[in-house]
Automatic annotation (TrEMBL):
EC primary class: transferase
EC number: 2.1.1.-
Alphabetical keyword list: Methyltransferase, Transferase
Protein name: Class I SAM-dependent methyltransferase
InterPro entries (UniProt xref): SAM-dependent_MTases_sf (IPR029063)
Domain of life: Bacteria
Gene Ontology MF terms in the entry: methyltransferase activity
Keyword Plastid among UniProt keywords: no
A Gene Ontology BP annotation from the UniProt entry: methylation
SUPFAM superfamilies the UniProt entry points to: S-adenosyl-L-methionine-dependent methyltransferases
Length: 241
């Protein structure tokens, strides 16, 4: 099976959106891990006066993590799937959150403009056709000194971690998803992870894209060695606020 890309992938997420929240809720630590990754950005003052881009917001789990940790920030949440975005936008949100339908590759066309103080991207980069181009866009959207947080399935490179990922995907996630009619998307999920960068390779990709202060931080539980938080910054001096 080849990877799903662009419109085909967005359509698969549209179809899966109706059951997506229930599936991720069954993943131990899913929401807590997102909040942990947001905290690792190290943004001050509960986000007061800050603009944050939630890139690939899905049904809003990453948006909720941002609002939980940074309740005073202004959040622009973007996703390529109209179905996922509708479910995100239909949830109750405090002021300061707006949703935009756009692929990560075409943010300017959708009116998404920087500078942002931070960009947070959860489970996004292995799903884009050209991650280096998206990283270049993200860097341009950040203000000097602005921070990037990436929360992503990136295997450590150890055989045991790949084996755990395959066991969970094929033994649990794919059978349930197939019953819901979303088998192709979750087969894509398995393949997209094993075919994407290891954690070390993604660290190098971030540095080569012009970011500094790059760190890869593991997450606890069964996802140790499978999912990581990456933090980085656009070089330059942050403006005092």
């Amino acid at each position: 099976m080849s990877l799903l890309r662009d419109e085909e992938l967005a359509a698969a997420f549209d179809h899966a959106s109706r059951a997506y929240d229930a599936l991720v809720a069954a993943n131990p630590g899913y929401h807590a891990h997102l909040r942990r990754s947001v905290r690792r950005l190290g943004l001050p003052g509960h986000g007061a006066g800050l603009r944050v881009l939630d890139l690939g917001c899905g049904t809003g789990a990453s948006t909720a993590a941002l609002r939980s940790v940074l309740p005073a920030a202004e959040v622009t949440a973007v996703d390529a799937s109209a179905g996922m975005l509708r479910r995100a936008a239909a949830k109750p949100w405090a002021d300061g959150v707006r949703f935009v339908h756009a692929p990560a590759e075409r943010l300017a066309e959708a009116g998404v403009r920087g500078p942002f103080d931070a960009v947070f991207a959860a489970y996004l980069f292995r799903n884009v056709g050209d991650p280096d181009a998206v990283l270049s866009t993200v860097r341009a959207l950040l203000r000097p000194g602005g921070r990037l947080g990436v929360h992503e399935f990136t295997l450590s490179g150890r055989r045991a971690d790949r084996a755990v990922w395959t066991l969970v995907s094929r033994g649990v996630v794919q059978p349930v998803a197939s019953l819901l009619g979303d088998g192709p998307l979750y087969r894509h999920l398995w393949r997209s992870v094993v075919g994407f960068d290891t954690a070390g390779a993604f660290e190098r990709r971030l540095r080569e894209a012009g970011f500094d202060g790059v760190r890869a931080l593991p997450l606890p539980g069964w996802q140790t060695g499978i999912t990581h938080t990456f933090v980085a910054r656009r070089p330059g001096t942050e403006v005092e606020r």
